[in-house]
Amino acid sequence: MPWRACGKYLSSAGILLLPVLVFSQLLKHSLMVAIDLWLAKWTSDTISNTSSSGCTTQNCGFDHSPYSMVFIVLSCLAIIMCLATSSAVEWTGLRVAKKLHNSLLNAVILAPMRFFETTPLGSILNRFSADFNTIDQHIPATLECLSRSTLLCVSALAVISYVTPIFLISLVPLVITCYFIQKHFRVAARYSLYKNYTPP
Asked: Which ranges form a coiled coil (predicted)?
C-alpha cells in the first residue's frame, strides 16, 4: 500500500479524532511502562529490605499496601485506557469508512456516461463490496495492531536503555541489521508475487 493511500485514510479521520487516537495510544503504553517500572521498584525495595533485615517477608510481616495500592490504580487506569483506545480505533474506522463511501458514491453518481461505458459494472460493484469490506473490517484492526506493536517495541527499548544504558551501543547495529533484513524480505515478497502472478 503506498504512503499516499495511508495518508488519505488517516486524514479522513478528521482533525480531532486522529489526535485523540494517537494520544490514547501513547497514554496507554505510558501506563504500561509505568506498571513495569513500579513492579521493578517494588521488587527491588522488597529484596533490599529483606536482605538488610535478614529475614523473609513471611516472618517479618512487611506491609506492601502502598505498593499494591499504586499497582492497582495503575492497572485500572491501563484497563480503562485499553478500552478507550479500542473504542477510538473502531470509531475512527467507522468514520473513515463512512466518509470514503460517501466520496466514492458521489464520484460514481456524478461521473459522465463515458465512465459507465468504459468501466465494467462488476469493477464498480467490487469497489463498494470487497474493497469496502477491507476498509471496514481489516484496516482498523491492522492499524491498531501496527500502532500497538510499534509502541511496545519503542517502550521496551526505552525501558531497557534506561535500566541498562550500555544497551544503546548495540542498538545502532541492531537497527541497521533489522533495516536490511526487512528490505530483503520486502524484495523477496515482491518477487514471489511477480513469480506467482498469472495474467487473466
From this structure: none
